[in-house]
Amino acid sequence: MSGTDADVIDALVGITPGSSLDAIRARRPEARAHAQATYQALFVPKDPGNVSASERFAVGAFVAGLHGATAVVAAYAARLASSSAPAALKEAVDTAVKKARTHGPYGSYTSGPLSREDTPGPVYRMEASTRRALGPRLAAAFEHAHMLVFHPRDAVPAALQALLDAGWTTTDIVTLSQIVAFLSFQIRVVTGLRTLAGRA
Amino acid sequence: MSDSILKTPEHTVPTAFTRAQLDWLPWLEPLAVDAMTPRHLASLVDAARVKSPYFRLLARDPDALEARTRTDKDIFYNPEGGLPRAERELAAAATSRFNGCLYCASVHARHAATYSKREDDVQRLLDAGVTADLGERWNAIVAASVALTATPSVFGPEHVERLRRAGLDDLAISDVLHAAAFFNWANRLMLSLGEPASV
Question: B57 with B88: CB under 8 angstroms?
């Protein structure tokens, strides 16, 4: 996966020029171009602000790992490795993925008629050794990302306070939330199109 | 103080899925209108969105917001073939119902009902959930959206086959996938950066 040039979804699905999926994506040219533009805005931003490339790709590799999306995991792990992240960080991401994987969506509703649909599930709190390897900012980001991936209806203001306490500013939290939410889209487009092409 | 949690004004929290208009209250500080640069304003794409605290909060990362919005518009509004608008909205509503996003479900259930004129079926989706019987074509669209929304995804060739049997061509199936995938993006932002309020 190239940082800035090749279309990431095309690359991960294996779409070649002139193929039937190439023609289908060409019918929604703005969606195709701007899914890629979102990738660039979030992973190779013109103005990275306070969120480093290593942080962006570490969250990317973690979120892809939680989805069990093999091709996507490899792509984000490769970008993490080339973002000057230490090897220990890559190992900590892999450890966190193994411990954190589960099945979603689950969670609870505000007390009322929907409470009968409440579905219990784990709240991810990582082990001390992983927390040390990731550092406080990424540790908080991963715990938040796990909630967003598997049980977003459990979101509460206290989850954002945990990010603020770990040093994420309001603007950083918007970027982090977009990274996790966008990947939830990108990974599903890749999964869906691979299945449509008969190569799931 | 922009880096603190906002205290929401007193409000009524909706406790059921609804097609009624809901409000959305941010937990983090949106940009103040008079603090927005031309880049922030352009990232809204639609100038009227300056009234929305949700979009003024997302405008803190303007490049991501603008690209998000242009992706959204093409998936849902591009009229060139593929899935009818009503059924793109159905996929969005089903995804939101399954993830538990009352705000997103309210907006897109309204759109699905408006464009399909099938208010009762849309309401059944909201009331009974994603296993409601809405007729085979809609059932196939809802089942595909839900399978793709599960984490990890359980979307498989059987969903593609069922959509084809229901009369969808590959562009229409791609539209289902994109509508469901997009609402996995939107639901997570709406659910985690603020909360719905009854109006």
Answer: no
